[in-house]
Amino acid sequence: MDINRQKKLFDKQAKKYSKRARNKTPDHQWREKLLRSASGRILEVSVGAGTNFQYYPRDTSILAVDFSPSMIEKAKETARKTGRKVEFMDANVEELDLPKKSFDTVVSTLSMCAYPHPERVLRLLSQWCKDDGRVLLLEHGLSSNRIFSKLQHVFDPLVEKRIGCHINRDILKLIEDSPLDIDRIENSMFDAVHLIWANPSSPH
């Protein structure tokens, strides 16, 4: 994946993401269920238009990162509308240099599909999260349903070209191979959508 091409794709989609942030699309119920577990100092990667802001507990602080300037602008609008104080960083998550073990909660929602190197991002999420913190993931990927997964493989090149997202990544395998310990997992949509509560792997 070419990062500059991706930036342009997501800049073009910023208005659509902003509309999704306001409207109660099906993913909102998953976000609300997952993010009520957030606490303390939160890092949210690939924040998009800030859809998650409305679901964080009010006593939390948020650092939101995205590489799309247009997305950041929409997320700032969402923060103002939801009355949330948010610090923003315009940066590529894969190249982001943040202090290790500095966040109580690290959040990624529907973003692992787009990273050129998702395994690297998962390592970084684990590094940035405190040892007693939580990593909260809402991700989509390859279904366990054979018919549905075949369709995912067929349409993946088109989807990646149009919106910069892969729909056939084995997200659960990626997470199982990462330095994260899964505490709880819930699956939806033919096992293609995953809500994951995880912790950084305990040092050996």
Please tell me about this protein's structure:
- With 204 residues, this protein is an alpha/beta fold.
- The chain has one domain (3-200): Rossmann fold (3-Layer(aba) Sandwich), CATH 3.40.50.150.
- The chain is 38% helix and 25% strand.
- It contains seven helices and seven strands; from the N terminus they run αααββαββαβααββ.
- It has helices spanning 3-12, 14-22, 27-35, 69-82, 118-128, 146-163, 171-176; strands spanning 41-45, 61-66, 86-90, 103-109, 129-140, 180-188, 193-200.
- Strands 3-2-1-4-5-7-6 form a seven-stranded mixed beta sheet, sandwiched between helices.
- Helix 5 (118-128) links the parallel strand 4 and strand 5 (129-140).
- Helix 2 (14-22) packs parallel to helix 4.
- The longest helix has 18 residues, at 146-163.
- The radius of gyration is 16 Å and the shape is globular.
SSE diagram, text form:
Blueprint: H1 3-12, H2 14-22, H3 27-35, E1 41-45, E2 61-66, H4 69-82, E3 86-90, E4 103-109, H5 118-128, E5 129-140, H6 146-163, H7 171-176, E6 180-188, E7 193-200
Parallel strand pairs: 1-2, 1-4, 2-3, 4-5
Antiparallel strand pairs: 5-7, 6-7
Task: Give the distance, in angstroms, between the N- and C-terminal Cα atoms.
Answer: 34 Å
Structural class: alpha/beta
CATH class: Alpha Beta
Mean pLDDT: 94
Number of domains in the coordinates? 1
Radius of gyration: 16 Å
Helix tally? 7
Q: Quick recap of the structure?
A:
This protein has a 7-stranded mixed sheet with strand order 3-2-1-4-5-7-6, sandwiched between helices.
